[in-house]
């Protein structure tokens, strides 16, 4: 009997070219169930492009990106452009329909409350602040209960309270040992606290894959290790930093609104 394949996504000899310039070069990476991976590197090193390819949002110029059958991927994009006049509620509806998900209204309301976005859901999403849109993007990535979540600079534009709420929610999500995580971040505390593997990228190439616990034992912190790598590759680490790091459910108008929606669309 063949052993069950445990990978979630796999990149084989991935390369990507934009405007005749290489962005990724011969990337090989396998993300398995339970992997917690942090990706760091200077701006323009191909981190976001690699993750978009892994999430099946972008095609490689050559090579192959495979997703195991039935694997659900949630990705929070660093920058999202939404059509004017579309509410966050509209976008969430589209997500749930696209994934053919039925969620109890109380479950949805708990996400909205935890991320403090309940009051934003009926507003034009294109007019929300960057931090508000970021919270909506994180909501969309996590509410589908993905097997693999990919977070691209998740704390950008967020105040301390919002960061704490999101870190708590992410910790709950990772309580399932089979869930996979990829974080792109310039915040080394996020890598050190949530990841067991660190990938260092420069110029579209994976230069080093390291165990986070071993890094901490040798260097004291992930930040010190990354700064050493930046020196090695003669990169100025100006944007690498550390940072200090009872859901209430009620039958209000949101629960009623969602109940009406899911009853209408429930099979």
Automatic annotation (TrEMBL):
UniProt keyword annotations, A-Z: ATP-binding, Nucleotide-binding, Transport
Gene3D superfamilies: P-loop containing nucleotide triphosphate hydrolases
This protein's record includes keyword Nucleotide-binding: yes
Residues covered by the ABC transporter domain: 9-228
Family matches, as InterPro entries: AAA+_ATPase, ABC_transporter-like_ATP-bd, ABC_transporter-like_CS, ABC_transporter_ATP-binding, P-loop_NTPase
MF terms (GO), sorted A to Z: ATP binding; ATP hydrolysis activity
Domain of life: Bacteria
Cross-referenced PANTHER family: ABC TRANSPORTER ATP-BINDING PROTEIN, ABC TRANSPORTER ATP-BINDING PROTEIN NATA
Family: Belongs to the ABC transporter superfamily.
Protein name: ABC transporter ATP-binding protein
Source species: Spiroplasma syrphidicola EA-1
């Amino acid at each position: 009997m063949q052993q069950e394949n445990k990978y979630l996504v796999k990149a084989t000899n991935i390369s990507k070219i934009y405007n005749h310039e290489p962005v990724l070069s011969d990337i090989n990476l396998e993300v398995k169930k339970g992997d917690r991976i942090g990706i760091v590197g200077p701006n323009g090193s191909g981190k976001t492009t690699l993750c978009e390819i892994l999430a099946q949002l972008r095609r490689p110029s050559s090579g192959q990106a495979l997703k195991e059958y039935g694997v659900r991927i949630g990705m929070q994009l660093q920058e999202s452009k939404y059509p004017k006049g579309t509410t966050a509620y509209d976008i969430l509806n589209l997500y749930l329909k696209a994934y053919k998900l039925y969620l109890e209204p109380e479950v949805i309301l708990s996400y909205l409350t935890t991320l403090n976005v309940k009051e934003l859901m009926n507003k034009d999403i294109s007019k929300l602040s960057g931090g508000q849109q970021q919270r909506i993007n994180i909501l969309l990535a996590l509410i589908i209960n993905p097997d693999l979540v990919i977070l691209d600079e998740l704390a950008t534009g967020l105040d301390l309270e919002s960061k704490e709420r999101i870190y708590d929610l992410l910790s709950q999500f990772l309580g399932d040992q089979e869930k996979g995580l990829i974080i792109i971040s310039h915040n080394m505390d996020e890598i050190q606290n949530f990841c067991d593997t660190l990938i260092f990228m420069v110029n579209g190439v994976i230069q080093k894959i390291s165990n986070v616990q071993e890094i901490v034992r040798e260097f004291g912190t992930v930040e010190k290790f990354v700064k050493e790598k930046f020196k090695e590759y003669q990169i100025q680490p100006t944007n690498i930093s550390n940072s200090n790091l009872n859901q209430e459910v009620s039958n209000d108008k949101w629960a009623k609104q969602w109940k009406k929606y899911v009853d209408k669309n429930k099979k």
